[in-house]
Write a structure and sequence with these properties.
The chain is mostly helical and about 675 residues long. The protein has 36 helices and 5 strands.
C-alpha cells in the first residue's frame, strides 16, 4: 500500500476537522499526493465539504489538471459564494482557461473583501486586457505594482497592456523593470523581444528571444515567439524547426500551430508537408476558413486553379464576412470572376465596420478584376485608395526613405569599384551552378525563370533571401562594426570563400534533382550583384527589363505589402532612379556579362531569347523551354497565373489606359531607365 492510500485509510478514523487539518499539513509540506488522498476521502463521505473541494482543486491546479481544478473550485464557489479566497482561486482558473469575463466577475467579488490583494488586481488586469479593455487593465495593473513594487509578473503584464494601447516607451520600461527584478523572466524577455522586433531592432530582439527559449525550452509559446521573429526577417528555414518544436510541446494538437508550420514549410518549398499540415488543421477545426484559404494559396501556387477555387469558396461558405477568400478568389479568376462573386466582394467593401487591412486587400483585388474587365477609371480609384491605406499600415521602421536609399546606393557604388574586382581576382568559387535573374518587380523575371526552369538541367529556388542575408552578414563575417556596404572593400579571399561556400551549400540543398544550374530569382538582387559576382565570378546574370511606365503601373497595382516603395508615385520614381544608377554601375564595373532581356521582345517571340539564354547557361537546347506554361512547379509570385498561360502581348503598353488617371505617377518616373 502506498503512502497516499495509507493516508486515505487513516483519515477514516479521524473526525472531519482532524482529517482536514492533517491534509492541510501534508499540503503545506508539499506532499500533494497524501493531501489529495485525504481530501478525496473527506469528499467521499461529505461531497459538500467546501474546504476539501477548494483545497483539492488547488492541488489539481498545481498538478496541471486545470479542468478538474475548475470543476472542484466552481463547486466550492456555488456552496460558498461569499468566500473571497474561493472566488480568487476561481478567477485565476478562469483566466487560465480563457474565460475572461468570468475571471473579471470572480476577481471583483474577491476584491470586495481584499481590495489590496495584488494577485487579484493582476488577474483582473490580465482579463481586462484580453477582453480588449487596455485602459481599465492599466488602472488595475498599476494598482498591483503600487501594492507590490517588486513583483516582476505584474510589471510584465502592465507592459502588455501599455503595448496594446500603443504606449511603446512606457511598455518597454515596464518590461525592463520586470527583467531587472527577475533577470531570468523568460516571459518578460520574450515580450520585450517582440516589441523590439516590431520596432525593427532585430539584433537585440533576437538576443532576447533566443535567451527566453534557452530559459524555458519546454514552453511551446517561447518557440512560437522565436518562430514569429524568424518569419518577420524572412528566415523561414529557421522558423520551421521552431514551429515543429512548439507543436511537439503543445498539450493537444491545435489547428493554429499546424497552420503556422504549414505556412513556414510552404515558404521553404516543402509543399507536400505544407499541404499535409493544412489538411490536418482543417480536420482539427472543420469550421476554419483560414485553413481553407491557406490550402487555396498553396494549390494556386502549384497551378491547381480549380482546386484552389474550391478551397476559397469553402472558406467563404464557412465565414462569408472573412475578407481574404473573397480577395484571393478575385485575384485567381480576374476577368472570369462571376458577377455573383463580384457582388459579394463589393458587399464586403460596403461594410462600414470592416478594418483597414482587410479593406486594403479587397480594394487591390477589386481593382485587378476591374482592370481585367477594361473598367480602368474605376480600377484606378480602387488602387488609389488601396495604396493610400497600405502606406498607412507600414510600420515606422519599414517606411521607405528616398534619401536613405540614395545614400545607400552612393555608398555601395563607392565600395564596389573596378579596382575591387582586380584585387580579389581568383578569390571566388569557379562554379557555374548559380543563375541570378534580377530586375525591377513586374519586369518579366518570373516569365524568364519559368522558361529556363522548364529545361531538364535547370532547377529553381524561386525568390531566395540568400543574397540579402549574406550582405547583412558581412559585419559578422569580418568581425567589424561598420555597415555592410562599408565592409565590402575589406573582403579577402578567406571571407569570400567562406560566404561563397555557405551560399552554394544552401543552394545545392534545394537542388534535389541534381541539376547543373540553379536559379535564384530574387529581383532585388540587382543591388547585390557586385557581392554575388565576387563570390561567383562565373555565375550567369540575367537582367530583365521592361517599359518603365508599365513596370511602374504594375507595381502600383500590385498587392505587394513588403515592397514599401510601391504605394507612392514619388517613392516609385526614387526607387527606379536608384535602380538605374546601380545597374549602370554594374555594367561598367563587374568583370562578367550581364545578359539583358526585354519583356516586350520576350512576349513577342520567346524562342530566340530562350535559345540565347540557354546558351549563356552553357547548356544544350531543350525544346521544353517553349512549353514553359505547362511546367508544374510552385510559383510564389503575383505572376503565378500569367506564366501558366500561353504567351500573350496584352500587357504591353498597358500604362496608356491610365495615362490620364495616373499622370502624377508617370511624371515621377525617370525617362531613361
Amino acid at each position: 500500500m502506498d503512502d497516499a492510500s495509507a493516508m486515505g485509510g487513516t483519515c477514516i478514523a479521524l473526525s472531519p476537522e482532524e482529517a482536514l487539518a492533517e491534509a492541510l499539513r501534508c499540503h503545506q509540506a508539499g506532499r500533494l499526493g497524501e493531501a489529495a488522498a485525504v481530501y478525496e476521502a473527506i469528499l467521499e463521505s461529505d461531497g459538500r465539504n467546501v474546504a476539501a473541494l477548494h483545497l483539492l482543486g488547488l492541488i489539481r491546479q498545481q498538478q496541471g489538471d486545470v479542468d478538474r481544478a475548475m470543476d472542484l473550485v466552481a463547486r466550492a464557489a456555488v456552496l460558498r459564494p461569499d468566500v473571497s479566497a474561493i472566488q480568487a482561486s476561481l478567477a485565476e482558473l478562469c483566466l487560465a482557461k480563457g474565460r475572461y469575463e468570468d475571471a473579471c466577475r470572480c476577481a471583483r467579488v474577491a476584491l470586495r473583501s481584499g481590495p489590496d490583494n495584488p494577485t487579484l488586481r493582476l488577474i483582473l488586469g490580465s482579463a481586462l486586457r484580453a477582453l480588449g479593455n487596455p485602459e481599465q487593465a492599466i488602472s488595475e495593473l498599476r494598482r498591483a505594482v503600487e501594492i507590490r513594487p517588486d513583483w516582476s509578473a505584474a510589471h510584465n503584464e502592465l507592459g502588455n497592456a501599455l503595448r496594446a494601447l500603443g504606449r511603446g516607451e512606457e511598455a518597454k520600461a515596464a518590461y525592463r523593470t520586470a527583467i531587472r527584478l527577475v533577470p531570468d523572466s523568460a516571459l518578460a524577455l520574450a515580450n520585450l523581444g517582440l516589441m523590439l522586433m516590431d520596432e525593427g531592432s532585430f539584433v537585440e530582439a533576437h538576443a532576447l528571444l533566443t535567451r527566453a527559449v534557452a530559459l524555458e525550452p519546454g514552453t511551446g509559446s517561447m518557440w512560437e515567439r522565436l518562430a514569429d521573429f524568424y518569419e518577420r526577417v524572412d528566415q523561414f528555414d529557421e522558423a520551421v524547426p521552431c514551429w515543429e518544436r512548439a507543436l511537439e510541446l503543445a498539450p493537444t494538437e491545435t489547428a493554429s500551430l499546424h497552420l503556422a508550420l504549414g505556412r513556414a514549410l510552404q515558404k521553404v518549398g516543402r509543399e507536400a508537408e505544407s499541404e499535409a499540415h493544412y489538411r490536418t488543421a482543417s480536420a482539427l477545426d472543420p469550421t476554419s476558413a483560414v485553413a481553407q484559404v491557406s490550402l487555396g494559396v498553396l494549390l494556386a501556387e502549384r497551378g491547381d486553379v480549380a482546386e484552389a477555387e474550391n478551397a476559397y469558396r469553402s472558406a467563404i461558405r464557412l465565414n462569408p464576412t472573412y475578407a481574404p477568400p473573397h480577395a484571393r478568389l478575385a485575384n485567381l479568376l480576374g476577368a472570369r470572376l462571376p458577377d455573383g462573386d463580384l457582388e459579394a466582394l463589393r458587399h464586403r467593401l460596403d461594410d462600414p465596420e470592416i478594418a483597414s487591412e482587410p479593406r486594403t486587400r479587397l480594394l487591390f483585388a477589386l481593382g485587378q478584376v476591374l482592370d481585367a474587365r477594361g473598367e480602368h477609371a474605376s480600377a484606378a480609384a480602387c488602387f488609389r485608395e488601396a495604396n493610400a491605406r497600405q502606406l498607412e499600415q507600414i510600420p515606422t521602421y519599414r517606411r521607405f526613405d528616398p534619401t536613405q536609399l540614395d545614400r545607400f546606393t552612393t555608398r555601395l557604388i563607392q565600395a564596389v569599384y573596378s579596382g575591387f574586382f582586380q584585387r580579389i581576382a581568383g578569390a571566388g568559387l569557379a562554379s557555374r551552378v548559380p543563375v541570378f535573374i534580377v530586375g525591377l518587380p513586374r519586369s518579366g523575371t518570373t516569365l524568364i525563370e519559368q522558361v529556363l526552369a522548364s529545361h531538364a538541367r535547370v532547377a529553381t529556388g524561386g525568390e531566395l533571401a540568400f543574397g540579402p542575408e549574406l550582405f547583412r552578414s558581412l559585419p559578422a563575417v569580418l568581425n567589424a562594426s561598420c555597415d555592410p556596404e562599408d565592409c565590402i572593400p575589406r573582403l579577402g579571399q578567406a571571407s569570400i570563400r567562406l560566404m561563397a561556400g555557405d551560399y552554394l551549400n544552401r543552394l545545392q540543398a534545394l537542388n534535389t534533382a541534381g541539376a547543373d544550374r540553379v536559379i535564384d530569382k530574387l529581383p532585388e538582387n540587382y543591388q547585390y550583384l557586385g557581392l554575388l559576382l565576387a563570390l561567383f565570378p562565373e555565375a550567369t546574370v540575367i537582367h530583365c527589363r521592361r517599359d518603365i511606365r508599365d513596370v511602374a503601373l504594375s507595381c502600383w497595382m500590385a498587392d505587394f505589402r513588403r515592397v514599401t516603395w510601391a504605394n507612392d508615385p514619388t517613392h516609385i520614381g526614387a526607387a527606379f532612379r536608384s535602380y538605374r544608377r546601380i545597374m549602370d554601375h554594374w555594367r561598367d564595373t563587374v568583370p562578367a556579362t550581364i545578359h539583358e532581356v526585354w519583356y516586350e521582345e520576350a512576349v513577342t517571340d520567346i524562342e530566340p531569347i530562350a535559345r540565347r539564354l540557354v546558351a549563356a547557361l552553357g547548356l544544350e537546347w531543350d525544346p521544353s523551354c517553349l512549353e514553359f506554361h505547362a511546367t508544374r512547379r510552385p510559383i510564389r509570385t503575383l505572376s503565378s497565373t500569367q506564366v501558366r498561360q500561353p504567351i500573350h502581348r496584352r500587357s504591353i503598353g498597358r500604362w496608356k489606359h491610365y495615362e490620364r488617371e495616373l499622370a502624377e505617377l508617370f511624371a515621377a518616373l525617370p525617362d531613361d531607365v
